[in-house]
Specification:
The chain has two domains: about 260 residues, Dihydropteroate synthase-like (TIM Barrel), CATH 3.20.20; about 100 residues, Sulfite Reductase Hemoprotein, domain 1, CATH 3.30.413. Helices cover about 40% and strands about 20% of the residues. The protein contains twelve helices and 15 strands. α10 links the parallel β11 and β12. The longest helix is centred in the middle third of the chain and has 22 residues. The chain is globular and about 75 Å long. Bound molecules: iron/sulfur cluster.
C-alpha cells in the first residue's frame, strides 16, 4: 500500500489557461522580486520564471504606480499572472481591468463592504479566481475569548495557532461565499511546520472542496529554506493535500521553481525534466565520480523531458540502479558499463563516460519526442458543483 495518500478532492479553477485542483497536475508558482512599477524588469523576470517551468507567477501590486504598470505586463506574459493586493480595493479593480488572471487578496482586509462587493462582482464577471492567504506572521491577534475557549479544550500551542489560522481563513471565505463567489483558493502559511501541518489538516477535514495553495512562509535562504520547504510542502502533498505550491526562498525566484519541481519529482507527482540518481561515493569508487556526476547534472538541467538517469560509482549498487533507470552508468576500475532501458549497451573508458552518457540520454529523449510520453497537461477533470463552507 502506498504511503502517499489519495489527493484531496477539489473543485477545478482556471487561472488563465492553467487548471488548478481536481485531477490536474499540481501547479508550480513563484513570485517576482522585481519592482512591478518597472514593467520591463518584471516581464524579464516573468519570462525567466516561465522558462524555468513556472506555471503561474504572482506579482506584488503595492501601490497605484504598480497597478498602472500592469497593462504593460499582463498581455505580454507567457504565463498567467496573479496580482498580490492588500487593503486597497482600487488596485484590485485596476488589476482586473488590466486582464490579470488571478487575485491574491483577503476581502476582510478591505474596509468598506461596498468596495469588497465591487471587486468580487468584477472578479466573478471575468471568472478570475481569488486566493485567500492567511499567514501566521500577519493574521490578526487572537481574541482572549478564543484563547480561553481553546485552553478549555486542552489545546496545545500548535493547536491554538493552527486553529486561529483556519478561523481567520474562514472569516475571509465567508465574505466571498456571502457574495456567492466560489472561485476561491486558500492558503494557510506558517514557518513552524507543526503549525503548518495542523492548519492544513484541519482545513482539509472541513466539508469543503476549495483548492489549496501550499507554502512555508519565509522559509529562508536556499539551503535551509529548500529543506524546510521540502519537509513542509512534501509532507502535505504526501497527505494528499495541495493543488498549487510555492517554495519561498531568499534568492533569485528561479531557484524556487527548481526546488518546487524537485519536491514534486521526489514524490513522483510530476515528471517534468530529468531525475538523477547519483551515489554519494565511498571508499570503493574507482573513477572521478564527483566530476562526472556534476557534468551530467549540468547537462540534465537543459533537459525538459521526463528521464531517469543513474550515475553510480561501483559494481555494488551500480548495476541495480542503472538497470532501473532510463540510462545508467555503473563505473568501476577506470571504465563503466552503460545501461539503456535496463540493458547493457556498451562498456566505455572513464574518459568517454560523459560523451557516452549524453549520447544515450539523447537517444531516449528522441524516442520520447516521437510520441511515447503522456502529456500531463491533457489530464482534466470537469469542475464540481460548489459546496458552501461557512454557515449562512
Ligand atoms: S555505488 Fe559503490 S561507490 Fe557508490 S556509494 Fe555505493 S558502494 Fe560506494
Amino acid at each position: 500500500m502506498s504511503l502517499i495518500a489519495p489527493r484531496r478532492s477539489t473543485r477545478v479553477l482556471h487561472v488563465g489557461d492553467v487548471k488548478i485542483g481536481g485531477e490536474n497536475p499540481i501547479v508550480v508558482q513563484s513570485m517576482t522580486t522585481a519592482d512591478t512599477r518597472d514593467a520591463a524588469a518584471t516581464l524579464r523576470q516573468v519570462h525567466e520564471l516561465a522558462d524555468a517551468g513556472c506555471e503561474i507567477v504572482r506579482v506584488a501590486v503595492p501601490d497605484r504606480k504598480a497597478a498602472a504598470a500592469l497593462p504593460d505586463i499582463v498581455p505580454h506574459s507567457p504565463v498567467p499572472l496573479i496580482a498580490d493586493i492588500h487593503f486597497e480595493h482600487t488596485l484590485a479593480l485596476k488589476a482586473l481591468d488590466a486582464g490579470i488572471q488571478g487575485l491574491r487578496l483577503n476581502p476582510g482586509n478591505i474596509r468598506k463592504p461596498e468596495d469588497v462587493r465591487e471587486v468580487v462582482a468584477r472578479a466573478k464577471e471575468r471568472q478570475v479566481p481569488i486566493r485567500i492567504g492567511v499567514n501566521f506572521g500577519s493574521v490578526a491577534p487572537m481574541p482572549e475569548e478564543f484563547v480561553d475557549e481553546m485552553a478549555e479544550r486542552g489545546a496545545t500551542q500548535v493547536d491554538l495557532r493552527a486553529e486561529w489560522l483556519v478561523r481567520s481563513a474562514l472569516g475571509h471565505i465567508r465574505i466571498l461565499e456571502d457574495l456567492d463567489f466560489g472561485l476561491t483558493k486558500v492558503s494557510l502559511k506558517a514557518f513552524e511546520l507543526p503549525v503548518l501541518f495542523e492548519a492544513y489538516r484541519r482545513f482539509a477535514a472541513l466539508p469543503n472542496d476549495y483548492p489549496l495553495h501550499l507554502g512555508v512562509t519565509e522559509a529562508g535562504t536556499p539551503k535551509s529554506g529548500s529543506v524546510r520547504s521540502a519537509a513542509g510542502i512534501g509532507t502535505l502533498l504526501a497527505l494528499g493535500i495541495g493543488d498549487t505550491i510555492r517554495v519561498s526562498l531568499t534568492t533569485n525566484p528561479v531557484e524556487e521553481v527548481f526546488v518546487a519541481y524537485e519536491i514534486l519529482k521526489s514524490l513522483e507527482l510530476r515528471q517534468k525534466g530529468a531525475v538523477m540518481i547519483a551515489c554519494p561515493t565511498c571508499g570503493r569508487v574507482e573513477v572521478d565520480l564527483f566530476t562526472l556526476a556534476n557534468q551530467v547534472d549540468d547537462f540534465l538541467a537543459t533537459v525538459t523531458e521526463p528521464i531517469r538517469v543513474a550515475v553510480m560509482g561501483c559494481v555494488v549498487n551500480g548495476p541495480g540502479e542503472s538497470r532501473d533507470a532510463d540510462v545508467g552508468l555503473a563505473a568501476g576500475n577506470g571504465k563503466g558499463v552503460i545501461f539503456r532501458k535496463g540493458k547493457i549497451v556498451r562498456t566505455v573508458a572513464e574518459t568517454d563516460m560523459l560523451v557516452a552518457l549524453k549520447d544515450e540520454i539523447q537517444m531516449v529523449i528522441d524516442e520520447r519526442k516521437n510520441g511515447l510520453v503522456e502529456d500531463e497537461s491533457n489530464r482534466y477533470q470537469p469542475s464540481r458543483p460548489s459546496v458552501r463552507l461557512t454557515p449562512v
